[in-house]
Amino acid sequence: MKKVLFIVAGVVGALLLLLILVPLLFKDKIFEKVDEQLAKSINADVHYNPDKISLSVLRNFPHVTAGLEDFSIVGKDRFAGDTLIAADEFKIVLNLKSVLFGDQMQIRAIEVEKPFIQILVLEDGTANYDIAIEEETLPGQETPAAEFNVGIQYWQINQGRIVYEDRSLPLRMLLEGVTHSGSGDFTQDIFDMETHTEARRASMVYDGIPYVTNKHLEADATISMNLPEMRFTFKDNLLELNDFAVRFDGWLAMPNDPIEFDMQFEAPKNTFKSLLSLVPGMYNEHFENLEASGEVAFQGYLKGVYSETSMPGYRVALQVNDGRFRYPDLPEEVKGVNVDMVVEDKAGDMKDLHLLVNQFSMNMGNNPVKGTLETRGLQPMQVKADIDARLNLAELDKILKLDTMVMRGLFSLNLKADGVYDSLQNRFPRTNATMALKDGYFKTASYPIPVQEFNFNGTVLNENGSLEATVVNIPTFSMLVDKDRLQGRLQLQDLNDYRWDAALQGTLDLTTIGKIIEFEDMELAGRIIADIQTRGRMSALDAGRYDELPTSGTMAVQDFKYSSKDLPYDFLLSAANMRFNPQAMVLESFAGQIGDTDLQLTGTVRNYLGYALKENQTLYGDLKLVSKRANLNQWMTDDGTVDTTAADSGLEPIEIPQNIDMKFQATIGEVLYDNLTLSNMVGQLVAQNGQLRMDGLSFQTLGGKFGLSGLYDPREISKPKFDFAIRIDQLSIQKAFQNFVTIQQLAPIAERMDGLFTTDFNLSGTLTQSMMPDMASLSGSGFVKVMQATLENSAVLQKVALATKLTDNLGAEVLKLKDVLMKVKVAGGGVNVEPFDFNVGNIPITLSGRQGFDKSLNYQMKLEVPSGAVGQAANNLLAQYGVGSVVGDKIPLNLGIGGTATSPQVQILGVAGGSAGQPSVTDAAKDVVKQQVDAQIDNAKEELDAKRKEAEAQAQAELDKRKAEAEAKAKEEAEKRKRPYRTASTSAAKAS
């Protein structure tokens, strides 16, 4: 016996060990198959936490349970970012044998914890749940077997939230606090599916009208599933809303796209009390104490076809006989409740919709209500009504015990109508109606300050059945909200061409109104003080004949605040004052702020009536805008901040409304845009036709003066366009490079330059979604003048120096530029520069060419190299081509510069006038040498001629000298020979 026990214990231990090891051994295999199959079968993004996946055999033995936490399926394409399902935990129960030995994993159950399920159907019928990927197969090819075999037998949802929104109807359903479970063998073609559903709160809105609001829902259903024929028969089904239960049976089928219905429903066991549980506000903690009696019958059908073009027919009938109810602690009761009502639309097309209330009557204490109502069709609609009601709202409040509202006052209504409403045929039922409220008082549970002293009386009169004959007249109304009184009057005539006469005076506290009336996703605060009178006719408004619309008055706003999830900052308006006339609204003062931006506005706004009352109307204005500081970054990003160090600035395009035409004469002390601070901005801003135009805008930034005119066009918001004329005066080259992406792309050489420049430039193109220029789209032209600048460590000049052997003259020089004027054109993804001149030391240079935004270079450089100055360097260069020493005045060189800005390449192209494709380097050098040799020969000839002429002159001078000396000597000798004869004669004469 002991041996048997040891064997049994060993077997059990082995089994337990196996159950523990199986998840560890096959975990990777299972989740690998899960990932593969999801990727192949679902066109959506599937997320789950890889650190929180689990696998267990013990939980649902003999099956294995796989668990995923933080699970979600998010749509793609048109539903990008929309969640289809998100759950805290998603569990799948798999057949263990199929996991260990099978080719397909068999799913047996699904459990979901706290899911959010959102089903969306767009106007064209596209649904977010249609995410299955269909595998393509060739003709004759069998469909490949899936990795998973879906044979679900059980499923469960715990504490879910489900949204169903079908915009094609339009219908929206919301279920909160949902617990749902179901079972059925989906491995079979025909089987019964049993489900149980409970929702703490259920709401349904159809075509903007709420039909069910925050009702408790519980449903049990047994449905016969015929999957081959896609036919589903309801066997035993019960739906409960609050205490009201409806049983339904029948079938629906969808063998193709249309859905066929044949269903009946009824409420055979309901009481008048259960019907009262559907009345808004009555199903509360007091409901159990409610005493009620009366007979109730409720039945109907749904039959026909639902498709994109048709709706099934339906009928709903409700009868209440001799109903009564009251609470034990109240002396008064509601009694004599009788209802006989039918709503029917046999064709489901709404054309023959028939609403018949044969009888409706009840007595609330001493206040009787009775009436009949019948309507047929929609356009045109036949109407017949007779209603008489007198209600003491305080008694009604006590009887209904509405926890959400307190109300008082005397309300009366008497309405008789008979005829046809057809706006196309200009028909209106003959009507005589009066209504009044005296000493009205309303307070909601969400806000303790009541609307009180609410008084009005009014009439609706139509005597001949035409739209023109209709007159709605409320000669006076008034109310007190907290300490603010609001009063006015309204008369409306001729519903074919509305004619109005209205007045409104008083103060409205928006903080109070915002708490009484809940504004979705926004908050309002502040006070509006108004005294306005207006009258006119709609046809005059349509035609713009504002002189026929005498509107006048004033309105002041104090301490206004607007908060919204769409704005990163609150909009604050400390004070504003406006005057009205038919043509315009005059803004006398306006002082507001949003984020860091303050605004002061004065001026005139026109067509405000058309803009406010009609669609597709334009609002015109001429305003003066004054601001101390405008932070545009807070208007251009989601969170109001900009990371100026990031490649993506975080900025986003600003849309300009299409239906405004506003001119702003702006004076702004400081504007923050991206990483720039613009000071003393003055000019005109024009918002028109969805574009923003800047006229004569001027400002200072980075130490320079800017002028800007042009257009920002975001009408195609995915590719905003711009076209600007830009004037910049005396701006630092370094600051321009550091702060403007465009300069970095257009002139990367500016990174190594220091100095000032001025430019007149026209530039156009498109912007990216981060408001940066799309460089490939840029085009423009203009002039750039460098007044004075230096360039050090230029990679281009260093390569030129190496290529020309002028390293001592070019490579070591700091390039100094002064009064350099460049004509520049931007096109085709690059910058074209026309020839311009500058010097490096004593070397004149002419440069022209093109630089691409990809930093590619294609420049031509002409140098006039003084050979005497460079001497040996020039001879060394020429010696490479087998030419001896040459000495001359200048050596003209043509260079080609290619490569990139960071790695330039330099070639010697030829002599002056040469270019790429002309003489080779050797030929060019020989040409240079020949010119230099010829020049030296010419110089030698000139020197010899000069020396010869000088020697000839010297020889001639010597000859002339010797000739003169010879002539003088000869003359002297002749004189000596004549002297004795002259003496003798003289002596003889003297002697005699």
Automatic annotation (TrEMBL):
One Pfam family cited in the UniProt record for this chain: AsmA
Compositionally biased intervals (Polar residues): 983-992
One GO process term, biological-process aspect: regulation of protein targeting to membrane
For the region Disordered, what residue ranges are annotated?
A: 944-992
What Gene Ontology cellular component terms go with this record? Answer: plasma membrane
The AsmA domain is annotated at: 1-168
| InterPro entries per the UniProt record, alphabetical | AsmA, AsmA-related
Which top-level group of life is the source organism from? Bacteria
> Ranges of Basic and acidic residues compositional bias?
944-976
Name assigned to this protein? AsmA domain-containing protein
Task: State the organism named in the record.
Answer: Cesiribacter andamanensis AMV16
Read off the lineage from the record: Bacteria, Pseudomonadati, Bacteroidota, Cytophagia, Cytophagales
